[in-house]
Structures are given as C-alpha cells and as structure tokens.
C-alpha cells in the first residue's frame, strides 16, 4: 500500500461521498451525513479488552490506512467511553509529512457523544485545539437522563466551553439504552457535516448497526490476526442486522485484513 495517497480500494469504497473541500456536489435532498462505520476487531470479533480497556489491534499499515480514511470525512464521531478510556487525538499524525508548498491534510472535526459532559478539560483533543494543532471538538449532549444536578452540569458546561469545546444540546428524550442517532445525524448535517466516520466504542458501534431505519452507508472493518478471548468486548451485532450490507472488497494490509461493505438499501 502506498504511503503517499489513500489506497485505491478505500477511494473506491467512498467514491459516492462529497468532497471535504467543497459542498458543490452535495445532494440537497439529504438530511443526514454519509456514515462510515469503521473499527478494528480480533478474529473472535472483539474490539476492546476486559472492562472496555483499549486494545491495539491495528498494525502500522492498517493504522496508516485509517488515517487516510480520516482525511476523506468531515468528522469523526466517538462515544464518551472511548474518549475517557483512550484519550484519543483523532487526527492524521501518521500520514507522511508534506512540504510547506503542499496543501495540508484535511483534518476531520472531532465529535464526542457526551450526555453528562464528562470529557476532561485536560484531554488531548482540547489541548491540541488550544495549541493550534487540532480542530475544535464538538460535544453532543441530550436534555434528559442527567446523573448530576443542574448546578454541576452547568459547571461542567462552562468549564468545557472555556477550554474550547463547542457543545450541542439536543432536547430529545430517549431511553438510556438507546442513542437518538437520527437526531444526532440531523444536527451534524445542519452544522455542515456531510460525511462522518464512526470510530467507537462498542455501544456506539452496536447502536449504529441496530438503528432502524438504517443510517450506515459503508463499513470498513480491520480484522487483526489475533484472538482476544471471552472477556473481550464485542459490538453484539445480531445476525439480522448483518444482512443489510454486501461485500465490496477485501485487502491484505500488512498482517491485517481490511474488509469494505456497502449498504444494500
């Protein structure tokens, strides 16, 4: 796989997405962004360790591919669990350096689903934004189910805004076990996001798989040649949800196998 441009199979998989550089080719009839669901898993379909601890499953070659994929989306979305466990940067730092005369790589917008505003003000996403090396993170929270009183919630809100986060509050009610994905995607589309890459964790991935009607356009799965075991965390996909996608391509990337699928409806 070349390190100087996105791999051809990835370009082909996302060929129907609008350019991140222009809105001129956006379908005005759409009310949500294009959605790519992507994750790395073991052979036994585990994406995290016991108690949701982070697992480094991707090899350096497939990690490079993932960073190319980030440049092809307007935003990256993760859940607060992943943000707390991994303290990710969600940038393109593994891509080869470019000369000053070359255009910069497109940096996707970090988006975190954070109902109770638990993101630490000292996290890497906010530090990178403050240092001018990352984009401003957006937090999406909901006007329901708060575990804290209003005074504590407002304190967290003010502290995160002061640290640089943009907070989008959706006034929706939904059971704690279900994420209001349609409302989330509509809010992102209204804010100018035309394509979003879903990177985890297990609850978020499972929610997108199970959403009815479906909202996922493409899936990119990296399968690492290891077993994690029964204590690992899976995304719990019922077999009936898997029937809504068809295989597009499989590629050996380093020691990993990358599989791309597209929605059939």
Automatic annotation (TrEMBL):
Highest taxon of source: Eukaryota
UniProt xrefs under InterPro entries: DHFR-like_dom_sf, RibDG_C, Riboflavin_Biosynth_HTPR
Does the record bear Oxidoreductase in its keywords? yes
Kindly name one Pfam family recorded for this protein. RibD_C
Reaction catalyzed: 2,5-diamino-6-(1-D-ribitylamino)pyrimidin-4(3H)-one 5'-phosphate + NADP(+) = 2,5-diamino-6-(1-D-ribosylamino)pyrimidin-4(3H)-one 5'-phosphate + NADPH + H(+); 2,5-diamino-6-(1-D-ribitylamino)pyrimidin-4(3H)-one 5'-phosphate + NAD(+) = 2,5-diamino-6-(1-D-ribosylamino)pyrimidin-4(3H)-one 5'-phosphate + NADH + H(+)
Coiled-coil intervals:
none
Q: In which pathway does it act?
A: Cofactor biosynthesis; riboflavin biosynthesis
Q: Which residues form the signal peptide?
A: none
Give any GO molecular function from the UniProt entry: 5-amino-6-(5-phosphoribosylamino)uracil reductase activity
Which Gene3D superfamilies does the protein's record reference?
Answer: Dihydrofolate Reductase, subunit A (3.40.430.10)
Enzyme nomenclature, EC number? 1.1.1.302
Sorted keywords for this record are:
NADP, Oxidoreductase, Riboflavin biosynthesis
* Role description: Catalyzes an early step in riboflavin biosynthesis, the NADPH-dependent reduction of the ribose side chain of 2,5-diamino-6-ribosylamino-4(3H)-pyrimidinone 5'-phosphate, yielding 2,5-diamino-6-ribitylamino-4(3H)-pyrimidinone 5'-phosphate.
Family from the record? Belongs to the HTP reductase family.
User: What is the name of this protein?
Assistant: 2,5-diamino-6-ribosylamino-4(3H)-pyrimidinone 5'-phosphate reductase
